Amino acid sequence: MSTEAEGAGGGHDLRHHGDAEVRDGGAALVDLAVNVRADTPPAWLREHLAASLGSLAAYPDGRAARAAVAARHGLPVERVLLTAGAAEAFVLLARALKVSRPVVVHPQFTEPEAALRDAGHTVDRVLLRASDGFRLDPAAVPDDADLVVVGNPTNPTSVLHPAPVLAELARPGRTLVVDEAFMDAVPGEREALAGRTDVPGLVVLRSLTKTWGLAGLRVGYVLAAPETIAALERAQPLWPVSTPALAAAEACVAPRALAEAAHAGQR
Questions:
Q1: To 5 degrees, how large is the angle CA 128–CA 132–CA 135?
Q2: Three-state SS letters, 165-215
Q3: Is 153 helix (H, G, I), strand (E, B) or coil?
Q4: Domain tally for the chain?
């Protein structure tokens, strides 16, 4: 495990994602980049989204969806922010939080580092090694890191870090961002930190893309302390999440959907 600073993304194009390979001349390729469950969105969800189209003349009202997400995780609404996918959340974090030494744990989805660099930050990396099974040692993260980003389970390695190990990264004065975009595919969501309020500086990101096949709709959410949510919300444009996306958020955290996702995670 090692830590290193990387200038300008270390020469890598952090914005290049696999979906670009299947556009236009790549139509003969199989797209494995989106990482969604087969047969999604299900018919009941498509029908629910279609029903929301009758409300498009009005500006989006996210109160019901926000309350539904809060209830799903047992949190007050002040700890929830709906976003246009987890990717928007990474941009908001990079622009709204005042940090001096951000660290991203790799292998990792490249978007959080790209967002930090685009916001003018110098980013350090903690590189997990295949020889160690990509296990995370909290001691490898620099003590003075005031923003740490880690995926759990991690894309692309699929490693599921134990929740107590991740919690060891938390400390006063540090923001700990845990990307749980794939957590609803984990049986029982074991090792999840979503809903925890006892971990200082914790920010959990969730996406509805993976389990529900909604990459094109752009919907996710942030769970964090109220003051962090307020700072991120101030950085958002007005009405950042569309009416159909809000309808999807509300539907996908309902008991029926949670039961379906849990069943799919056992396959």
A1: 60
A2: HHHCCCCCCCEEEEECCCHHHCHHHCCCCCCCCCCCCEEEEEECHHHHCCC
A3: coil
A4: 1
Instruction: Please give the model's pTM, rounded to 2 decimal places.
Output: 0.88
**Range(s) of the domain holding residue 200:** 64-128+139-265
CATH number for the domain that contains residue 80: 3.40.640.10
Amino acid at 242: S
Residue 47 neighbours by CB under 8 Å, 6+ apart: none
**142-154: per-residue pLDDT in tens?**
999 999 999 999 9
19 located within any domain: no
pLDDT computed for residue 210 by the predictor: 83
160-199 tens-digit pLDDT: 999 999 999 999 999 999 999 999 889 999 999 999 999 9
Cα-flanking dihedrals φ and ψ of residue 147, to 5°? -145, 125
Residue 39, domain member (yes or no): no
Compute the distance between CA of residue 191 and CA of residue 136 in angstroms, rounded to an integer: 14
Q: Is the pLDDT of residue 80 over 60?
A: yes
d(CA 142, CA 127): 12
Residue 200 lies in a domain: yes
11 vs 203 pLDDT, higher one: 203
Q: Within the chain, what is the greatest distance between any pair of CA atoms?
A: 55
Residue at 13 is within a domain: no
User: Hey, how many other C-beta atoms are within 10 angstroms of the C-beta on 252?
Assistant: 25
